[in-house]
Amino acid sequence: MSSMEASDLTIDTFRKMFESGKRFDSRDLNEFRDIKVSLDVSNKAEGSARVLIGKTDVVVGVKMQIGEPYPDSPDKGNLMVSGDMLPLASPRFEMGPPNFYAIELPRLVDRAIRGSEMIELSKLVVKEGEKVWTVIIDIYPINDDGNLIDAATLGAIIALKNTIVPVLDKEGKIDYDKKSKEKLPLLKDVFPISFTFYKLGNAVLMDPTREEAETCEVRITLGISRWEKQYLINSCQKSGKSTFTQEEIEKMMKILPEKFEEISEKLKKFL
Amino acid sequence: MTEKFKRPSGRALTEMRPISAKVGVVPNADGSAMFAFGNTIAIAAVYGPRQLHPQHMQDPAAGILRVNYDLLSFSVSERKKPGPSRRSQEISKMTEWALSPVLDLENFPNTVIDVQIYILQADAGTRTAGINAASLALAHAGIPMKNLVCSVAVGKQDAELIVDLDKEEEDYREGEGATDFPIAKIANTDQFTLIQLDGKIQPERVKEALNLANKACEQIYEVQKKALKEVIEQ
After folding, report:
1. What is the pTM of this model?
2. From A252, which residue of chain B is nearest by alpha-carbon distance?
3. CA A257/CA A130 separation, integer angstroms
């Protein structure tokens, strides 16, 4: 049953409920499920985190490699984000080349992080123009019960906060046996959180379960960060065939800073 | 502050680059168009509705839209390796979703409408130019549409909101840097069909940015309508 697509009847029922502000699990439309975070998923990773939002479970690991800088940024380290929609995590995910969703998810995480400038890439240069660190964030869902993008971004920033830069030996290769204490250079107190709004009929909601998400027609993911007292939208992407109205977008701009405060307060000790 | 601020091109803050559009640029296609924002030039061709293969992809309830966007290898400074990239795949999908809300394909079951968009010359704003060209090409092909789709990138250079960023503006790194905020909307409505953003913009300024996009889209709509009329009168 879990792999059946949402029927018209289900969609209609959900639409009526959402439009009157109700959900099956009695949450408000903008209310998140419980968020649980744990660290050190793998002691081989330079940093890692596991984030559960309700039954959605995602693990994120950071690995660091030495490589060449991009020609247009010889004085900066590189950031790479990848994701693999493991068939382990959902009846929807299949083996084989990545579908659009699998391409989009890491790109959204990448853009939220890059836009916020939380990683000080200019401090990741070993030799300018020749050797720099590449920070690679790998995202794997363990169980997809909706809102994977927001969970993945949270996992990525928490993993980055716990990332240790490996030691280089005399030849400039990584020495995995030596333990370093050097933290990844990050801006103090700046990080993005991503929030995705889903729409069905005239109702807009956050943090859907997979069942809820599959009835929705369109979604929009926004990355928001806080610089001192100022909020900044760093990334945004609408996905899906339907539209958002200007009024709906303006309303999101009011909700986002509130949600940023709520989630960052809740996860204070990890951020 | 506004009076002191000068765009590199000398344009006013809300001034787009010269825009031009021409319909019927690919004789083989069922519909085609060119759209340019200054030095950014996009061409789009529509083939279909035609039978969709493989058959298992067919939708018996409605025709489907399939968009392919890409840069020609020599359209950018550093040669772009031919073939799809993750960026072009993403833009193809975004464009598909930007256009599909205006299409009514229920009368074309099991078919596909292929939209091919290529960028001849890139100076930022390629996806928005591509959407404008594709919207014209769909209309030219006679596909039933609720209205045209109009697309433009608004954005921010340092603290100033500006319209239709060129590459130099998109690469700006001083102060608050550059924000690229490409949108598309159904003409004459408040329905946004493409919303993307990269950069730094205060949530409270998004409304102002959208209003700038609305004004620019009104101008684009006029240019699009004119181009469609010209091809009919020929």
Report:
1. 0.91
2. B203
3. 40
Residue-by-residue DSSP string for A110-161: HHHHHHHT-B-GGG-EEETTTEEEEEEEEEEEEE--S-HHHHHHHHHHHHHH
**b/e string for A199-214 if b means 16 or more Cβ within 10 A?**
bbbebbbbbbbbebbb
ipTM attached to this prediction: 0.85
How many Å lie between the alpha carbon of A173 and the closest alpha carbon of chain B? 30
Q: What is the pLDDT of residues A102-131, one digit of tens each?
A: 999 999 999 999 999 999 999 999 999 999
Task: Quote the CA–CA distance of B114 and B119 in Å, as a whole number.
Answer: 17
Q: CA B136, CA B150: separation in Å to the nearest integer?
A: 10
Q: A233–B200: do the CB atoms touch at under 8 Å?
A: yes
Instruction: State which amino acid sits at residue B203.
Output: P
- Chain A residues near any Cβ of chain B (below 8 Å): 71, 100, 103-104, 107, 111, 114-115, 218, 220, 222, 224, 230-247, 249-250, 253-254, 256-257
Q: Taking CB atoms and an 8 Å limit, are B192 and A244 in contact across chains? A: yes
Domains and CATH numbers, chain B: 19-233 (3.30.230.70)
Nearest CB neighbour to A249, from listed B94, B192, B204: B192
* Structural domains of chain A in order of their starting residue, each with its CATH number: 8-270 (3.30.230.70)
List pLDDT tens digits, range B64-78.
999 999 999 999 988
Nearest by Cα to A232 from B208, B184, B198, B90? B198
Q: For residue B155, report the phi and psi dihedrals to the nearest 5 degrees.
A: 175, -165
